[in-house]
Amino acid sequence: MRSGKLAANRIRATLHGIGSIADICPETSGLYQNLMPAGTQDERLEATWRRVGNHIRTACDQYEREGRRPS
């Protein structure tokens, strides 16, 4: 459990450092803009739910093709 907590703390510190650098130099080679998500929050949420629906549809179609398998 300790190693998991240590890893989480290291990741948190690394991300904090990256965020600090982005705050200091936001226009470095346009990299910061490439990290920003495209579209509004509503558009991104809609796209996420569309992908979820597509995954569910694909799984249902596969289930119908293969049929229920005995356990």
Order of helices and strands: HHH
The gross shape turns out to be flat
Percent helix: over 70%
Estimate the strand proportion. Answer: under 5%
Total number of helical segments? 3
| Tally of individual domains | 2
Radius of gyration equals 21 Å
Main structural class: mainly alpha
Number of strands: 0
How would you sum up the major sheet? none
- Mean pLDDT, to the nearest integer, reads 80
Low-confidence spans: pLDDT under 50, at least 5 residues?
Answer: none
What distance separates the N and C termini?
35 Å
Q: Can you give a write-up of this model?
A:
This protein has 71 residues and is mainly alpha-helical. The chain has 2 domains: 36 residues; 34 residues. Helix content is 76%, strand content 0%. The mean pLDDT is 80.
How are the secondary structure elements laid out?
Layout (H helix, E strand, L loop, with lengths): L1 H23 L6 H5 L5 H26 L5
Give a concise summary.
With 71 residues, this protein is mainly α. It is 76% helix and 0% strand.
Please supply descriptive tags for the structure shown above.
71 residues, 3 helices, flat, mainly alpha
